Amino acid sequence: MANVVVVGSQWGDEGKGKIVDWLSERADVVVRFQGGHNAGHTLVVDGNVYKLSLLPSGVVRNKLSIIGNGVVFDPHAFVAEVAKLRGQGVEITPDNLKIAENTALILSLHRELDGFREDAASNSGTKIGTTRRGIGPAYEDKVGRRGIRVMDLADLDTLPAKVDRLLTHHNALRKGLGHEEVEHEAIMQELTSVASEVLPYMDRVWKVLDDSRKAGERILFEGAQGTLLDIDHGTYPFVTSSNTVAGQAAAGSGIGPGALSYVLGITKAYTTRVGEGPFPTEQVNEIGEFLGTRGHEFGVVTGRKRRCGWFDAVLVRQAVAVNGIKGIALTKLDVLDGLDEIRVCTGYMLDGEKIDYLPASQGAQARVQPVYETLEGWKETTAGARSWNDLPAQAVKYVRHIEELIGAPVALLSTSPERDDTILVTDPFQD
Ligand code: GDP
Ligand code: IMO
Ligand code: MG
Predict the structure, then answer these.
(1) 268 in a labelled binding site
(2) What distances in angstroms separate CA 259 from CA 1, 84, 265, 426, one per listed residue?
(3) Which protein residues have their CB within 5 A of the ion that is ligand 3?
(4) Res 302: pLDDT
(5) Superfamily name and number for 104-198
(6) Which of the two residues, 1 and 174, has the higher pLDDT score?
(7) Residues whose CB is less than 8 angstroms from the CB of residue 10 and which lie 6 or more positions away in sequence, other chains included
(8) Tens digits of per-residue pLDDT, 95-109?
(9) Of 7, 37, 284, 411, which is least packed with CB atoms within 10 Å of its CB?
(10) 37, 76, 110, 142: which one is catalytic?
(11) Where does IMP bind (predicted)?
(12) 4-101+201-262 CATH fold
């Protein structure tokens, strides 16, 4: 039985939400395994727009949706998102949504620390451009073994000591940064006030997944962010604080890696990035403006304008390798409709030498210069195409060329934000 892992192969916002929603029709279970509500996944179903940050995109189809232990979970953001989606008619109950008991929590002090650091860094020109959701600080506390976890909400006797331990660390930090200390009572109140809204969803997720796997059900793992934002493999330090690569699907949900059979890399037909950091093919010119306007490239979470540029085959080829991507879902091809020429980066120049990979060091990443190939564009429209035969010959040529450059085939092709404007080439669940 095939289980599918969906990951972003660039800097996020590749269209993972749309593809996960489309694929989840074929799945029984949809699992988030890293990240938190820094993610922003947009689904469009018959003109209705759903924006998800923390909940797996499978909830919209009423599939069993799971928040795995690799996620950092803001309970108040969770309650707000559930209410918003219920308002849109999505059914969310403890029967169709489960949260791993060992998931680390994001608290207000994490969000504040994220903001304090970004503000301070803005003045010194070293900011990351985070989503200010407290993602990094929450992962720091998890790895530092002082985090509060979902299960702790059910054990009010041991909670005060855990909060004390956490505050010893945070109040020292806050004092050092010149901010007021946090009261023990305030954090206790923040946690106890939300416990009854979270605990009904808490479950032994590794067991739920083990049962599901044994029953032969299909599990779809929904990655957030993208490979170049991975804490190890990305453009460090301009990354998020989790492993975003496919291998994390196992550790971040409690299933063996042997259960992950098909890795689908979601890949935009050009490149975007939100926040600071290197971006070799960025176009700060009318091309970048064209892509941003045509592609509606504004962040779902922060509303920030996304930086835009040409397709970078070097990065995606590297993402294919580090994730074990078997096939890609190519999205937003329609955004390129009407361009006279389309450029694709096939390698870099670094200090006078041609290289075919993204170097690991921050300095070298900032220095690489893209080497482009120029392809002819197409005048016809691909927007809304639902069959391969509807695509202009030149668009097919572009797609075939990308496949060759990255060393992976196109399994799905997306031609608009709408759920059904999707062309299936190879079914990841059957392959
Ligand atoms: P995610 O974070 O990877 O889920 O991606 P986002 O939802 O943040 O950003 C992708 C945006 O592109 C969303 O607004 C989608 O509705 C939209 N989108 C997805 N696929 C396509 C496509 O094939 N064509 C166009 N024009 N828009 C798309
Ligand atoms: P989806 O799932 C694009 C970026 C932020 C910042 C960096 C660190 O929608 O693809 P963080 O708040 O995670 O500490 O910020 O990572 N970032 C994203 N960029 N899409 C996302 O998610 C992102 N999640 C985080 O802009 O540069
Ligand atoms: Mg997004």
Answers:
(1) no
(2) 9, 33, 17, 20
(3) 13, 40
(4) 82
(5) Adenylosuccinate Synthetase, subunit A, domain 2 (1.10.300.10)
(6) 174
(7) 226, 227, 228, 267, 268, 271, 272, 273, 312, 315, 316, 319
(8) 999 999 999 999 999
(9) 284
(10) 142
(11) 13-16, 38-41, 131, 145, 225, 240, 304
(12) Adenylosuccinate Synthetase; Chain A, domain 1 (3.40.440)
